[in-house]
Specification:
The strands form eight sheets. This protein has a four-stranded antiparallel β-sheet with strand order 1-28-27-26, with no helix packed on it. Strands 2-3-4-5 form a four-stranded antiparallel β-sheet, with no helix packed on it. Strands 6-7-8-9 form a four-stranded antiparallel β-sheet, with no helix packed on it. It is built from three helices and 31 strands. The protein is rod-shaped, with a radius of gyration of 41 Å. It has one domain: 7 Propeller (Methylamine Dehydrogenase, Chain H). A hairpin with a 2-residue loop joins strand 10 and strand 11. The chain is α+β, with helices and mostly antiparallel strands.
Length: 414
């Protein structure tokens, strides 16, 4: 207990407890998808897609001049980046160390980046209206109007035959399967592929305008911008789909999964966010602003959504500070505790060394005491030998040099 009190006074225990508290926060804090906060986008562009990868959020837009990309390490502070071309960039994804974006306009309708900052134009398999791109099982797959293309490296693209001539709007990968949904087609508004090359038509739960599909926790979930009471559909295998009731009949444009929660965003409605723990039962949530929210993603403990309208508030986030930031804080606390302990040990060692030196000096002094006594005795004997004549006056004795007279009143003694 005394040692604990001593260490607590030095601040070591406090620092350790702070570190442990930070670690506890790491294990318990979760992104909630319920409470949303407006963030300032790098520019008021029509942001159409956002994704997370390698510690970075990246968003792409349909408009802007030299600033159709923005990046953020935490989803809060955003920086404009220059796209490879001023195309209408529809979708962005990250995989195998590479960012890939696709466009519905322009000469080169693909661009890639190793870091999300510096982008290079690439030639698409065809000048299609490319709407969505994803990565899975070592392959980038993009879908567009009646078309599919694939690439192993994001640079060289090969056209593939879609299962139907639909306007394919979104593609995802999960559980060994690529799944795409479309704006139109009846009843084959879903197609699946085990390899991104060969595709098979599947029936959707309803002939809605399906805008987005995602995978999480063993389930595929798709949302649409049309339909009555059936703007969500789910599938455990990507093949058989079941209609679900959305929180409201909004124009739901994007859905994602993260940290045990499904989150979808919409362009309109009173509550432009809805959440679900299982993809089946949905609850409306209030967005940070009544913007036209086009895309939502999850990364590093945070949900991030982007919109194509609004003034200075085209990004919103929900959750806690990113796990990376919190991990850094916990590590900083741990290092501070370790440094405090090292300083305490160093100070204790210095104090111990000082005391040891004092004790050694004291021992050396004490060791000299017998020698001093002997020296005194020796000096006495020497003095006596120098003064060989003894003079006595009562009880007082004095010595004088041999041959000298005794002081007055003293009598010489042999």
């Amino acid at each position: 207990m005394n040692m604990f009190k001593k260490y607590f006074r030095t601040g070591v225990v406090a620092a350790v407890l702070a570190s442990l508290f930070s670690i506890s926060v790491l294990s318990q804090a979760t992104a909630d998808g319920i409470n949303w906060t407006s963030r300032t986008s790098a520019a008021d562009n029509q942001w159409n897609s956002v994704a997370y990868g390698n510690g970075l959020f990246v968003a792409v837009s349909l408009d802007g001049s030299g600033n159709r990309i923005m990046t953020s390490p935490d989803g809060i502070t955003w920086t404009s980046r220059t796209s490879a071309a001023n195309n209408n960039w529809r979708s962005v994804t990250y995989g195998n160390g590479l960012w890939v974006a696709v466009s519905e306009t322009g000469t080169n309708r693909v661009m890639t980046s190793p870091d999300g900052i510096n982008w290079t134009s690439r030639t698409a398999a065809s000048p299609n209206f490319w709407q969505s791109v994803t990565y899975g099982d070592g392959l980038f797959v993009a879908v567009g109007y009646t078309a599919v293309m694939t690439s192993a490296d994001g640079i060289t693209w090969t056209g593939r035959t879609a299962a139907a001539s639909n306007q394919w709007s979104s593609v995802t990968y999960g559980n060994g399967l690529f799944v795409a949904v479309s704006f139109n087609g009846s009843p084959n508004q879903v197609m699946t592929s085990p390899n991104g090359i060969t595709w098979t038509s599947r029936s959707s739960s309803a002939n809605n305008v399906w805008r987005s599909v995602a995978y999480g926790n063993g389930l595929f979930v798709a949302v649409s911008s049309s339909g009555t009471g059936n703007r969500v559909m789910t599938s455990p295998d990507g093949i058989t789909w079941t209609g679900r009731t959305s929180a409201a009949d909004n124009a739901w444009y994007s859905v994602t999964y993260g940290d045990g929660l499904w989150v979808a965003v919409s362009q309109d409605g009173t509550n432009r966010v809805m959440t679900s723990p299982d993809g089946i039962t949905w609850t409306g949530r209030t967005s940070a602003a009544d913007n036209a929210w086009y895309s939502v993603t999850y990364g590093d403990g945070l949900f991030v959504a982007v919109s194509n309208d609004g003034t200075g508030n085209r990004v919103m986030t929900s959750g806690v500070i990113g796990l990376t930031a919190r991990t850094t804080a916990a590590e900083a606390a741990r290092v501070a505790a370790a440094n405090a302990e090292a300083a305490r040990v160093a100070a204790a060692n210095a104090e111990a060394a000082r005391k040891a030196k004092e004790q050694q000096e004291l021992r050396e002094i004490l060791a000299l005491i017998p020698s001093i006594g002997e020296l005194t005795l020796s000096l006495g004997e020497t003095t006596q030998s120098l003064y060989s004549t003894k003079c006595v006056k009562g009880k007082t004795t004095k010595y004088v040099q041999s041959g000298a007279k005794c002081p007055k009143g003293y009598v010489k003694k042999k």
